Amino acid sequence: MNRVNQQAGFILKSQPFKETSLIHQVFTRDYGVISIISKGSRAKNSKHGSLLQPFRLLLFSWVGKSDLKTLTSVEEGSNTAQLKGRSLYCGFYVNELILNLLHKHDAHTALFEMFKKTFFQLSKDEHLEANLRQFEKVLFDQIGYGLMLEQEIETRVNIQPDKYYIYRVGYGAVVTNDIHHTDAILGSTLINLRRNQLHDKNELNQAKRLMRKLIDAQLDGKILKSRELFV
């Protein structure tokens, strides 16, 4: 029986199983997204129930050869983000991105570290939109769809801050003279998105619109429930 001890991870989603148990989708540092059952965790005398919450860095131990692992112990890690209000909604959104865009069992250690950092940044309740864009950008890099934000894709000329571009999914940024096009985005937005320096409200709105388009293309019709929280 395969056994793993003290693996760092975050609970992304939990659902009841039978009368007293839960099945968790967990994003782990070295094993990617896995499914773990915590037997008896919903019982009143459960040793683990109070710990098994999202947005908390936990150390999981489990056994099992099948796709569904069995939790043997869990401990609190060193980084617990206290999310509330709008930052809590952002946390649910980040969790949904991982659940929908990562293949199970694919390890992404760099993304895991960014995931952990993002929760810490969100807990400060500052620059929420900029932090989300930074996370989304790293996520796309890790799943093989990194954004090309340095040059115009057809001419290989560096992105100019005062020109407008349309970013084509799976292709890159193409210069446009139609500044009123719904997908037109200012070059300065692309530059500051690449540099992680988004601050201006207009740039933040343009970057959000761009990333939503790119994410929707990857979701292939799936709906992110967390987006409804921002309405």
Description:
The chain has 231 residues and is α+β, with helices and mostly antiparallel strands. The chain folds into 2 domains: 3-76, Nucleic acid-binding proteins (OB fold (Dihydrolipoamide Acetyltransferase, E2P)); 85-229, de novo design (two linked rop proteins). The protein contains 5 helices and 8 strands. It has helices at 86-101, 109-123, 128-142, 187-195, 201-219, and strands at 3-17, 21-28, 32-38, 56-63, 68-80, 164-168, 172-176, 184-186. It has a 5-stranded mixed β-barrel. Strands 7-6-8 form a 3-stranded antiparallel sheet. Helix 2 packs antiparallel against helix 3. The radius of gyration is 20 Å and the shape is elongated. The N and C termini lie far apart (47 Å). The mean pLDDT is 93.
Largest sheet: 5 strands, mixed, barrel
Question: What's the architecture of the largest domain in CATH terms?
Answer: Up-down Bundle
Count of structural domains: 2
- N-to-C order of helices and strands: EEEEEHHHEEEHH
Query: Total number of β-strand segments?
Result: 8
Inertia-based shape: elongated
Rg calculated over all Cα atoms: 20 Å
- The neighbouring-strand order within the major sheet is 1-2-3-5-4
The structural class is: alpha+beta
The CATH homologous superfamily of the largest domain is termed Recombination protein O, C-terminal domain
Total helix count?
5
Per CATH, the class of the largest domain reads Mainly Alpha
Assign a percent range to the helix content: 25-40%
Beta-strand percent range: 25-35%
Report how far apart the termini are: 47 Å
